[in-house]
From TrEMBL:
<keyword id="KW-0106">Calcium</keyword>
<dbReference type="InterPro" id="IPR005225">
    <property type="entry name" value="Small_GTP-bd"/>
</dbReference>
<keyword id="KW-0479">Metal-binding</keyword>
<dbReference type="Pfam" id="PF13202">
    <property type="entry name" value="EF-hand_5"/>
</dbReference>
<keyword id="KW-0472">Membrane</keyword>
<feature type="domain" description="Miro">
    <location>
        <begin position="2"/>
        <end position="170"/>
    </location>
</feature>
<dbReference type="InterPro" id="IPR013567">
    <property type="entry name" value="EF_hand_assoc_2"/>
</dbReference>
<feature type="domain" description="EF-hand">
    <location>
        <begin position="186"/>
        <end position="221"/>
    </location>
</feature>
<feature type="domain" description="Miro">
    <location>
        <begin position="415"/>
        <end position="578"/>
    </location>
</feature>
<dbReference type="InterPro" id="IPR011992">
    <property type="entry name" value="EF-hand-dom_pair"/>
</dbReference>
<dbReference type="Pfam" id="PF00071">
    <property type="entry name" value="Ras"/>
</dbReference>
<keyword id="KW-0342">GTP-binding</keyword>
<dbReference type="InterPro" id="IPR013566">
    <property type="entry name" value="EF_hand_assoc_1"/>
</dbReference>
<dbReference type="Pfam" id="PF08355">
    <property type="entry name" value="EF_assoc_1"/>
</dbReference>
<dbReference type="InterPro" id="IPR021181">
    <property type="entry name" value="Miro"/>
</dbReference>
<keyword id="KW-0547">Nucleotide-binding</keyword>
<keyword id="KW-1000">Mitochondrion outer membrane</keyword>
Length: 647
């Protein structure tokens, strides 16, 4: 909500603008005041709404025009003052002042202020005043209300500024159509969503317990039994179908807020809307959807026990037929308080575990959210808000893990959700592996992977449930991912997949390893299509020898077609949990070649000069396959330079 309000008073000459401001400040009438009173600042602690208030006076003469236009553009609300004893000053409101604001492109609330009621002869009824004001309000929607006052008595002066404040902080225009006397569709949509969130048992009724929880959340106080009965009686009398089974229906809830607005209690409806994250445009605010949640580099985000429990509860609530799975219509109902299914563009539910009909099981539901939280925790945070996560702060549903490097250094992984990159040539069987992991049947039909594909499932490791996310990228995005250190640092495991029946398949992944720096990632090799004849790979060494030279286990042979999976997903998860056991070249490869060079140069400088250090570095690293060509050339150049200097 806005923390300051800027109120501008405009109107014809001699209507009493400056006198109204002076009467508010002095709390008494001042007969002679200056032409334009200087800007007044009222501190928040003395205002009903606890906001800083700026009151700005203005003149209407030709010499005042530049200042007037500047202040109109800065104002949050404009009070157009007319004099009760000067009908022309009232007539000029719809013919001059209101069109003038529109001409300047200003769209802020307007309060009509009738001053000098002490000069009115006789009494004027509310009906008579309404007859004068309503035609203006119907033509100019920006007019919020009309207040009559007397700066001389003084009478209703503070009310002028109270209504001006309220027009800014609790505006009518976004909520209510004053011409048709109905709630606007955006307001109806927001209130319907709030009703659904408060209807915790999803029976379409707010019972006494749910209404009390709603009251506590919004106003920090429970409803008294007498108040509750009074509300229900009023709604039942005026709103058809507003009360059912001693509870408030959605129609009754909407009627209640319509009455609040019509009776001038807009602050009640706005308090409710703001408690549920809505801004003045009736959209959920960015700060509500995405609360501050900083994730350090090399850490990942997982659901906390509270997050898993909430998602389990909401699954069971919307599983109306209690068959242990969410059908399409049940998912639509669940996501009805959000922009829609967050995974609609991701081949869901093929990305996780579903039953034979395609309905998502609880295991698949929790796995899908585990993957979403790992890959994009902001989406999880936003959807916890959309779905009505009850605890504050909402970030209590998430957990930040320890950095991966710390896990690897300590040799103990504390995380429960792991990310695995699947790399291999086209047609090597990566997609089939992903489908098998998600429990989907094998398909003979081959389709090229054109965009990133992700699946998730749980894996049991010694009685503990872990979630494993498998990703393949397709030829278009594979290079982009593997050359980006920020992306490769996210991977817990990299699996190189080759088709054991294709003679050229292994060369592809061997070239990948040479092209990109990936040896800091725990690694596993998988040979697919083991049901077909084993082909001699066109490579300098065969896959099993290649892996042994790297200090890794030989490729895991699988056949998705025949279901011979060799517990490969368990093996992947085990590698993620014991990363140092699966680093190419051994755990000492966690220290990069560049880091070792720096270390050796420092040590050798202390014992006799840079040349000695370079030779030591060269001898340490110059073994077959240990250096890239570029690195070897660089060291040869340094050694040659140092030798020439010695000569």
């Amino acid at each position: 909500m806005r923390r300051d309000v800027r109120i501008l008073l405009v109107g014809d000459e001699a209507v009493g603008k400056s006198t109204i401001v002076t009467s508010l400040i002095k709390e008494s009438f001042v007969a002679h005041v200056q032409h334009i009173v200087p800007e007044v600042t009222i501190p928040p602690e003395v205002t009903p709404e606890n906001v800083t208030t700026y009151i700005v006076d203005s003149g209407s003469g030709p010499q005042d025009r530049p200042h007037l236009e500047s202040e109109i553009r800065k104002a949050h609300v404009i009070c157009v003052v007319y004099s009760i004893d000067n009908p022309n000053s009232f007539d000029r409101i719809p013919t001059y002042w209101l069109p003038y604001f529109r001409q300047l492109g200003v769209n802020v609330p307007v309060i009509l202020v009738g001053n000098k009621i002490d000069l009115r002869g006789g009494e004027v009824t509310n009906e008579a005043l309404e007859e004068e004001i309503v035609p203006i309000m119907n033509e100019f929607k920006e007019v919020e209300t009309c207040v009559e006052c007397s700066a001389k008595l003084p009478l209703n002066v503070s009310e002028v500024f109270y209504f001006a404040q309220r027009a800014v902080l609790h505006p009518t225009a976004p909520l209510y159509d004053s011409r048709d006397h109905v709630l606007k569709k955006e307001c109806v949509a927001a209130l319907r969503r709030i009703f659904k969130l408060c209807d915790t048992n999803k029976d379409g009724i707010l019972d006494a317990s749910e209404l009390n929880e709603f009251q506590r959340k919004c106003f920090d106080a429970p409803l008294q039994a007498q108040e509750l009965e009074g509300i229900k009686a009023m709604v039942q009398e005026h709103a058809d179908g507003g009360v059912r089974d001693s509870g408030l229906t959605e129609a009754g809830f909407l009627y209640l807020h319509t009455i609040f607005i019509q009776r001038g209690r807009l602050e009640t409806t706005w308090t409710v809307l703001r408690k549920f994250g809505y801004a003045e445009d009736l959209r959920l605010t960015e700060s509500f959807l995405y609360p501050k949640f900083d994730v350090p580099y090399d850490c990942s985000v997982e659901l906390s026990p509270k997050g898993y429990q909430y998602l389990t509860d909401i699954f069971e609530t919307f599983d109306k037929d209690q068959d242990g799975a969410l059908k399409t219509e049940e998912l639509e109902d669940l996501f009805s308080t959000s922009p829609g299914n967050p995974w609609a563009g991701q081949k869901f539910p093929d990305t996780t575990v579903a039953d034979d009909t395609g309905a998502v099981t609880l295991q698949g539901w929790l796995a899908q959210w585990s993957m979403t939280t790992l890959l994009d925790h902001r989406t999880t945070l936003a959807y916890l808000a959309y779905l009505g996560y009850p605890d504050e702060p909402r970030t209590s549903a998430l957990h930040i893990t320890r950095p991966r490097k710390v896990d690897r250094r300590k040799g103990k992984v504390t995380r429960n959700v792991f990310l695995c990159y699947m790399c291999g040539a086209a047609g090597s069987g990566k997609t089939s592996l992903l489908r098998a992991f998600a429990g989907k049947p094998f398909s003979e039909k081959y389709e090229t992977t054109k965009k990133m594909n992700s699946v998730v499932n749980s894996v049991d490791i010694d009685g503990s449930e872990k979630y494993l996310v498998l990703q393949e990228f397709g030829s278009k995005y594979e290079a982009e991912t593997l050359r980006n250190p920020r992306k490769t640092d996210l991977a817990d495991v990299i699996v190189y997949v080759h088709d054991s029946s294709d003679t050229n398949s292994f060369s592809y992944i061997s070239n990948l390893r040479q092209q990109y720096s990936l040896d800091h990632i725990p690694t596993l090799f998988v040979a697919t299509k083991s049901d077909l004849d084993l082909a001699q790979q066109r490579h300098e060494v065969q896959p099993d020898v290649y892996c042994r030279r790297l200090g890794l286990q030989v490729p895991v042979a699988v056949s998705v077609k025949t279901g011979q999976m060799a517990d490969v997903f368990h093996a992947i998860c085990s590698v993620a949990m014991n990363p140092n056991s699966a680093l190419p070249g051994g755990s000492d490869r966690a220290m990069t070649a560049a880091a070792r060079i720096r270390m050796y140069v420092k040590v050798c400088t202390l014992i006799g000069g840079v040349a000695t250090g370079v030779v030591l570095v060269y001898r340490t690293f110059a073994r077959p396959g240990s250096l890239s060509n570029v690195t070897a050339q660089w060291i040869n150049w340094i050694v040659g330079t140092a030798s020439r200097r010695e000569l």
